[in-house]
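input
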Amino acid sequence: MTSPVHASGVPSQDGIKYGQMRFNAKHAIVTLIMCGFALYPSWAQRKVQKSASLGTKRSPGGDVSAGQASVASPTLTPDEGLAVIAAALDSRIHSRPERDCSHLVHAIYDRAGFPYKYAPSSDLYKGTSEFQRVTHLQAGDLAVWRGHVGIVVNPAQHVFFSAMRSGLGTDAYDAPYWKQRGQVRFYRYIKGRRQD
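output
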């Protein structure tokens, strides 16, 4: 009996057949542009909801609480989330392919100007003081499993970017492989909370 083979021709050790996920700069740029187009209506809708709600405030995670004054969000804005994605495309980030997923994500956030104390994916999954758990996603949020982390690229299509077994690439966080890894949690960076 032969074991399943990766699309790259490398046999899998766990009996799971993996698709080939390679970083394609042209594809990533098109994805980012589409994310920008997808985020604009979302931003415009939030503006309309805010003006129509009169006295109702939406928190950054999407929870609604009546009668509270609006406060500026301490978390990343959608535009800042796109800056994180742009940093992921930076060729200097890709020049060190030996990085694991948590080191890669840490380097991307640092490059985008949003530093945080390095934490392995298992700590990020539990939660850290520098990230807030969210249910309404935007580009730049973390997608975290026990033992793996990536950056949400397109929440509408459930796409994230990370270091995969086959190299840097994108995949759907609701794909069967990721579902079998357990419950995914999503976190958004909290500005000004860097812990040294």
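quick obs: The chain has six helices and eight strands.
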